[in-house]
Each structure stands twice: as structure tokens, then as C-alpha cells.
Amino acid sequence: HPYAPHRPVWCLTTKLPIRDERGRIIGIIGFSRDVRAPLDAHDIPAGLAAAMEHLENHLAEPQTPAGLARRANLSPSKFARLVKRIFGITPRQLITHTRLAAASRLLLESDRSVADIAVACGFYDHSAFTRAFHSATGLTPRQFRACTGKVNSVVCCGRRSTLPAAAR
């Protein structure tokens, strides 16, 4: 972080499809921004951090906003307000975006099948994952995987998708 190196901050990442001269999608680019001013470690709610860590480490298991609120030792409504204030999204969206961010990493870093990645990241099946991924990125998982590493000249389109910083 340019303002406070080695200090924790909460970020939102915007993902945009990258297009070549003919308008074909050839990749994806992300931009991160601070949600708030740089945070001191004591400003990050420990309960929320614990709930997020649990979510990230147990993606294949069923996750609900109420379950994450319990892990954070917060009421569901207080948890929802906190998630909305920090991330700008609902707890349900946070679960989906965290799963999509993990799936993006697996698509880039492994040769696992799309169906295997879908299940590992907590999606009911391949098609539910593909619909969610396409809705968030404008690409199917197979297109995303096929496009990586092929960026020469790029033109960004206006489609936006917001994912947690875990997508980086």
C-alpha cells in the first residue's frame, strides 16, 4: 500500500474484460482500491477477519451469512451492516465473490477441470459456477483460462465486476 507499507487495508477489486483490436475478449484486468483510509491492525474487526478466514479455508462447505455472523460473534444484522460498510456488498455477495476469486486463482494456477474447481469452491455444479463466473467477469471459466497470457494490444470494455481483494 503506498500510504502505509506493511499495514493491513481492506480493498475492493474491479475486474474488466480485456479485448483485442477486433473486440474479442482475450483476458481480464483488475484494479484495486482502498475501501477506507489505511487501517491499523486493531481497526480490523477480529470477528470479521476470523469469519473471512473460515470462509476462504472452507469454500467447498455450505456457507451462509448467518453462519459467518455466528463465527464473527455478531448478530446477522450487525454482520450485514459491517460487511456492507467495509466491502460495499451484502454477505451473500461476499460469499459468492470469495468463491469466484478462489476459482479464478485455480483456473489460472492449476489444470483441474472446471467441474472440479466448481465443487471445490462451493458451487452446486458446473453450470451454476459457469453462470456466476460469466455474470461476474463476462467470460466463461474456459474462456478465462484460454485467454490468460495472450495479452498483446488491449482495449478495455465498460463491463465491471467487483470482487474482494482475494481475487488478486
Cα(first) to Cα(last) distance is 14 Å
Mean pLDDT: 78
Q: Topology as H/E string?
A: EEHHHHHHHEE
Shape: globular
β-strand number? 4
Largest sheet: 4 strands, antiparallel
SS summary, helix count: 7
Percentage of residues in helical conformation: 40-55%
* Structural class based on helices, strands and sheet pairing: alpha+beta
Q: Unreliable stretches, pLDDT < 50, 5 or more residues?
A: 149-168
Structural description of this entry:
By secondary structure, this protein is an alpha+beta fold. 45% of the residues lie in helices and 15% in strands. It is built from seven helices and four strands. Strands 1, 2, 3 and 4 form a four-stranded antiparallel sheet that branches. Strand 1 and strand 2 form a beta hairpin. Helix 5 crosses helix 6. It is globular. The two termini are 14 Å apart. The relative contact order is 0.21. Residues 149-168 have low confidence and may be disordered.
Write a short abstract of this structure.
The protein has 168 residues and is an alpha+beta fold. The protein has helices at residues 46-57, 65-71, 76-87, 91-109, 114-120, 126-137, 141-147, and strands at residues 11-19, 25-34, 155-156, 161-164.
